[in-house]
């Protein structure tokens, strides 16, 4: 093999390695960005949520349903991201714990009973089995 061919092969190997490294870095950055976006959305929902909903003293009225729907939509999206393997299991486990904690108050369970038909059967089954019926005590 001539020296020129060896040099070209070396350049090709370095270029392929650089492309692979860039893909790995981009993938990590995308996952971090997605995690940050879902964290931001969660915080936004709860920062705007009226205190009587958070403390569980509200009734299941139009305002409560609005905020609960936003929260349950977020949970549903996170569930589908996990099912599509777009988020790591460790992150998913943290999110499940958070959902269980948030859904412990009776108001969240009552709201779920009113709103659950907005969601597909797969998510309904998951959410009822793993979140609503296994919530951490408030």
Written account of the structure:
By secondary structure, the chain is mainly alpha-helical. It has helices at 3-48, 51-54, 62-83, 89-102, 106-115, 121-130. The relative contact order is 0.10. The model has no long low-confidence stretch (mean pLDDT 89).
Summary tags:
138 residues, elongated, 77% helix, mainly alpha
H/E order of the elements? HHHHHH
Average pLDDT for all residues: 89
Given the C-alpha coordinates, what overall shape results?
elongated
Main beta sheet strand tally, sense and closure: none
Note the topology.
Blueprint: H1 3-48, H2 51-54, H3 62-83, H4 89-102, H5 106-115, H6 121-130
Helix pairs in contact: 1-3, 3-4, 3-5
